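Reading a protein record of the kind used here takes little practice once its layout is understood. An example of such a record is reproduced below.
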Amino acid sequence: MTALAATAMFSAAPALASNLPLNQQTGPDLNTKIFASGDAGVATVGTTVFGNTSNGAGHNVAFTGYQSFNGTTFGALTTIQITGGNGFAQVADNDFTQANATGNDDLKALVMDPTPDFYLYEFSIQTLDAGTVSLWYLMGGTWFLAANSPITTGNGDTQYIFGNALDPSIAIDKVAIVTSSPINHVKQNSIQLTGVRTVPEPATWALMLLGFGGVGVAMRRSRKNKPAMMQIA
């Protein structure tokens, strides 16, 4: 029972900062949405484009497009665009052709760099073909590969969440989404700011309660067994 309780509690404990996971998910958006700067629905084009986390925040989130990233070196820059509206910012390859006939479909690494530190990032991505999605994150000047990377995915919109919801003290500087197939667009961008807790999922609460309950039962059994063991001695 003690071992079961310890396992349950360990499973619910924060992960190491250098081993943060990337997972597919269908849950709700995070608290801080990222909008296109100006939020007017007009495309802004460049190798780096900007979003914001609230009205009046200006250009406090930068997106930069690259042709590749291997964890230490970025490839050539490529042109991207950001559009807004009433929803999240959508970042896309500016000259995506759906066929790659002209070689313009070359966006395979997108860096998201917000001014405020964050510990969770949620996004939806669509690529030209089925392939893999990996996520790298920068902390303390070092790039780490997210646990579970790469994840096999189709070419439809797929939603992902990155980070550890149980540790809001983690401060991530930026992330790089890296794919094996050219990126069409990345949308539904939202983050959770460092120091701001999310409400744990019901499954997380259940796992934690199981752990505490198991420890309690184990301690009660231990106390009951002690007198009998002393008498035998």
Q: What stands out?
A: Residues 15-193 form a domain with the Jelly Rolls fold (CATH 2.60.120). The chain has one domain: 15-193. The first helix runs from residue 2 to 12.
